[in-house]
Specification:
With about 400 residues, the chain is mainly α. It is built from 17 helices and no strands. It folds into 2 domains: about 210 residues, MFS general substrate transporter like domains (Growth Hormone, Chain: A); about 180 residues, MFS general substrate transporter like domains (Growth Hormone, Chain: A). Helix content is about 80%, strand content about 0%. The protein is globular.
Length: about 400
């Protein structure tokens, strides 16, 4: 579906070029921003469904599979700051185009050979492409939707979450039969929508959207307390979503509920989608209330209790609630840099936030697994979710108040 939407947008723009973004219909901007958001995860989440086939053809051991799955996360943590440089030098839209072409080409080349060195090398480049464009999104959301920044953020965040669900759910039943069961060709197929989005963004004509960095600064300033506040807050989303996504299947197997794995993971991912819509349409004055943050924290703890203490349909419902809460935290954290910083600092602040958030996520995942191994108690792997709930309860109201004050001055 995303490929068809992108093609429609591309053909419409091709037949009627737009002189500037200020005259372009809001619908065009919404579609392009949503498609670009999809492309942040579309090729990345195309890997898990075909891991058994990669394992079979390349004879990778479990350590190799784990490295392949976590390599993009490490790249995202280490390369987001260069996305701030790219945005500062080229502008948000042009940075997106460069990053999207990097993602499309490298993602398609992962299956060449097939070869282990090519698979890992191109996965590394693909992760770098994703890292390069993430800081551009907050800048573009503010540029295209200056009076509705949260709405613009909700659009691309919704695309990101839909991208996760699309490739993860459609690869096995839909795409693989179309490409003859080849995981190599499936990687090429998932790259096509990324190319379509890059072409559509290239056709859109607009003024130079660069916001020159003050004094040439683009590296994240880790002495800035906003980076630590936002990065820590964003990490709560990872503790909730990635914690559940990583350990819920093994937990259900360990507790004799293996039949619930598919339903629980589907609920976890589908439950994310409404959260991005909430951030896009609910006024910030409501999202920033102390009561809202406390409610989200309580829901995380309630969902965790549902997973650990109950079975059957309750586990599936609890997984959906974890997805909803994690995506709400993540989407709100995406919107905040554009509210906290002037235009020339948005990409820089966002890059610092992504770097810190992904780093905390990576090490938290390692510690969670170590806690399970050390205690031999499956529930120990979910302890970081409690920390995530505390972070939301403590930092959520503070960040909401700062964002509300900043929004009033825009």
């Amino acid at each position: 579906m995303d490929a068809r939407l992108g093609l429609v947008a591309f053909l419409a723009l091709r037949s009627n070029p737009l002189p500037s973004v200020t005259r372009s219909p809001s619908l065009v901007r919404v579609v392009l921003l949503w498609l670009a958001g999809i492309d942040l995860r579309l090729t990345l989440l195309a890997v898990p469904p075909v891991i058994p086939l990669i394992h079979r053809d390349l004879h990778l051991n479990e350590s190799g599979i784990a490295a392949l799955s976590n390599l993009p996360v490490l790249v995202l943590a280490g390369s987001s700051m260069f996305g701030a440089l790219l945005t500062a030098r080229l502008g948000a839209r042009r940075a997106l185009i460069v990053g999207l072409w990097t993602i499309a080409i490298s993602a398609a080349l992962r299956g060449v050979g097939p070869s282990i060195p090519m698979l890992f090398a191109m996965t590394l480049v693909m992760g770098a492409g994703i890292a390069l464009i993430q800081p551009a999104f907050p800048t573009l959301a503010r540029s295209w939707f200056p009076d509705r920044i949260a709405f613009g953020t909700g659009i691309w965040a919704n695309g990101l979450l839909c991208g996760e669900a699309i490739s993860a759910s459609l690869t096995l039943p839909f795409l693989l039969p179309l490409v003859g069961g080849s995981w190599e060709r499936s990687f090429v197929a998932w790259s096509v929508p990324v190319v379509v989005t890059a072409l559509a963004l290239g056709v859109l004509r607009e003024p130079d959207d660069r916001a020159p960095a003050a004094n040439g600064a683009w590296l994240p300033d880790f002495r800035d307390r906003r980076v630590w506040l936002l990065g820590t807050y964003q990490s709560a989303a990872s503790m909730t979503y990635f914690g559940a996504n990583t350990f819920l299947p093994d937990f259900l197997h360990a507790t004799g509920q293996a039949n619930l794995v598919g339903a629980a993971l589907a609920a976890l991912n589908i439950g994310q989608i409404p959260a991005s819509l909430a951030v896009g349409f609910i006024p910030l004055r409501i999202l920033g209330r102390r009561s809202t943050s406390l409610l989200v924290a309580v829901l995380i703890l309630a969902a965790l209790a549902g997973v650990l203490a109950f079975g059957g349909a309750v586990v599936v419902a609890a997984a959906a609630l974890l997805g909803l809460c994690g995506a709400y935290i993540l989407t709100l954290s995406f919107a905040l840099p554009a509210l906290f910083a002037p235009p020339h600092e948005i990409a820089r602040l966002a890059a610092g936030t992504f770097t810190l958030g992904y780093t905390i996520s990576f090490f938290t995942s390692l510690l969670s697994g170590a806690a399970w191994d050390a205690t031999h108690a499956p529930a120990a792997a979910f302890l970081p979710m409690i920390a995530g709930a505390v972070i939301v309860a403590v930092l959520g109201p503070r960040l909401g108040a700062i964002a509300a004050d900043a929004r009033a001055t825009l």
